[in-house]
Amino acid sequence: MNPERTGAWKALGRLATDLIAHPLENLLAEPERFKRFSFGGAGLLLDLSRQRMTSEVLSQLIALAAERQLPEQREALFEGARLNTTERRSVLHTALRAPPAERPPLAAVVETVNQRTATVVDAVRSGHWRGYSNRAITDVVHIGIGGSHLGPELAVDALNISSHATPRIHFVANIDGLNLHRVLRNCDPERTLFIIASKSFSTLETRVNATSAQHWFLERVNDRAAIARHFVAVSSNVAAATAFGIAPENVFELWDWVGGRFSLWSAVGLPVALAIGNDGFSRMLAGAHEMDVHFRHAPAEANLPLLLALTGIWNSNFLGIGNHAVLAYSERLRLLPDYLQQLEMESNGKRVHMDGTSAAIHTAPILWGGRGSNGQHAFHQLLHQGTRSFSADFIISASEPQSFPDHQEWLLANALAQGQAMLLGHRDSDPHRDVPGAHGTTTVVLPDISPFSLGALLALYEHKVFCQGVIWDINSFDQWGVELGKRLAVPIHQQLGGQSTLGQDASTRGLISRLRSKPEQTTTG
Prior knowledge:
The protein is of the alpha/beta class. It is built from 18 helices and eleven strands. It has helices at residues 7-20, 24-28, 33-36, 55-67, 70-79, 107-126, 150-159, 177-184, 204-221, 238-244, 270-297, 304-318, 336-348, 380-385, 406-424, 451-472, 480-496, 506-516, and strands spanning 38-41, 44-47, 139-143, 168-172, 192-197, 231-235, 251-253, 323-329, 366-371, 391-397, 441-446. Strand 5, helix 9 and strand 6 form a beta-alpha-beta unit. Helix 1 (7-20) packs antiparallel against helix 4 (55-67), helix 4 crosses helix 12 and helix 12 (304-318) crosses helix 16 (451-472). 43% of the residues are buried. The mean pLDDT is 94.
């Protein structure tokens, strides 16, 4: 049944109409509000006290989740039901971070791959893995895109803070050759290990970058046998990886029950383990598993992923807020908005329900964001005095090691002040100085930026996506819109190379013709 036909959905519509007429700051005046609207789990704090929400609204949102059979769907997720109906696949990324005793019959296959990747990590980090010239590895170049890239890069950037880290981890995703060039110009082929991460081993951008990296390597070493010591792959297509020249023992398997944007916990996390060690990666898995346990067993009224999801639905579907900002007040979480853009918009950017009928409601909002306090001097002006509605998540860490201790207090002060300004605003007789406020925000507090806390945070948002997909009655685990663009690029690439453009639309044909002419570049200076 479509969600808007449920009794709770209709009741929430009536509550929204009434609540919009009341000033948001009046809600904050309630003495016990923070206590009633802040929740803990897996070491994290979720504060909803600055949202335009009442206890009655929250009760109806929880009733909506029950009417949409979310508890049953959640159990189906953990039990391996084929929730990805369009591709007829199970969705079992949670099994990747569960202790072996909790994930039979998958324990054996997962443990086999885990042990193999752990062996590689230890060998590279200890210097025992040697390149073709018997020199230790100093640089790792990870080539992937989307789900096989955003999670690992975020985790490495957040957790690998040592200035003397070995090996150095580099990421290449953009098909723009400058990305690869800038990485390789600082690498020694004798001491560089390449990780090719592609579930299908056919993703266009990854295939092109991997082929160029291989050519760069062979031009310098002139020995195809050397590939075996310098290239590894993470893929479900072992045959294609070995045909590329990668030794079979250096191909680490992915499975069809692990979606790309949920794959960080698998061998896709190899660069993370190389950066922080096997123990560090295990702690990150443990943090995610702790959130899994919380999500599966915590009651609805205290369940962090569910409450975060319901708050998003309340803002988007009932208060008419179409865009959502992720404001990470931590330099180490600067890539979190990029990661969440893919996780949320690729998962829930859908226009049809599970049965294929058109959705008459909005699904995922536009998600964007940035890091504090940089954003305060960029886009926050629009948030405070612009005409657009928005919701926001502030992500802060209660404790973070600083070379300059005073900076952490200023960072936290700015985060709290920005949320307060968005809520309360500032009344001024001068209209140019008046700040209306009345924007609801959520604050997520991590105890620190550790592997455990980061794992819990990312799992929190994964489960948020799942909950919203269930309530909206959409498939959060396919991405057919992404596939369309990939298919269309193939003939255009051939036509840019000289093939006939007959059959192309007039606009694309004109652009191809213009680009074929290769106009002279302008120079300056």
